[in-house]
Design a protein that fits this description.
InterPro entries: Flagellar_FlgA (IPR039246), FlgA_N (IPR041231), SAF (IPR013974), SAF_FlgA (IPR017585). By secondary structure, the protein is an alpha+beta fold. It has helices at residues 2-22, 26-39; strands at 45-50, 64-66, 76-84, 89-106, 121-127, 146-147, 162-163, 173-180, 183-191, 200-205, 210-217, 220-224. The chain has two helices and twelve strands, in the order H-H-E-E-E-E-E-E-E-E-E-E-E-E.
Amino acid sequence: MNELRGPLIALLLFAQSLCAAATTDPATDAVRKFLSRQATQPGREVQIEVQPAPARLPHCENPRPFLPGKGQQLRGLVTVGVRCGADGRVRYLQAKISIIGDYWVSARRIEAGTRIDADMLRRTRGDLSNLPRGAVLEREQIVGQIASRPLNAGTVLQEQQLKPVPLVLRRQPVTVEARGQGFRIAREGIALEEGALGEKIRVRLADRRQIFAVVSGPGQAQVNF
């Protein structure tokens, strides 16, 4: 009898696997494949967990997944619609998308107003869907920026914590160039606030008038008509 126990157990396990395969929800499989295609990112690992549809729902023939609404980010918890059968009846499934990749954190404390260099950053790896909103993932977008607030070691750098290097400083003399169709005029003034490239600042001209101009370079601003 003991000699038959091993083959019988193996046969039972094989039968159970066939049963599980036969009862696999096609909608769940379709959603998993759909999200795998949609969420693929070069150099990053995508992990997808789909919550199975309730057993009370009817079998979904020819499932056709889609993303409901607009602007849904493909990370973290997402909702996926599935059209079933010839009549296109819709059901919704929940899924969790984990995107495993590299990102950068501060290697040490960085004081506010410090220009960030590459040696102030440390690469780490984890689930990008767990990062705070506005996290900056590329080192090139961090190096050269100014810390707008103190950053402790290990901080995930976010857009609101960084600002570009100002090309015009407050109370600095600036050349304001006014351009229009067929003319170009340059006047001198004093910047009343600092600004980076493309930012609008207030400038006081020699006659005490104040105007708004867009920073166009170091010590330069521009007004277009």
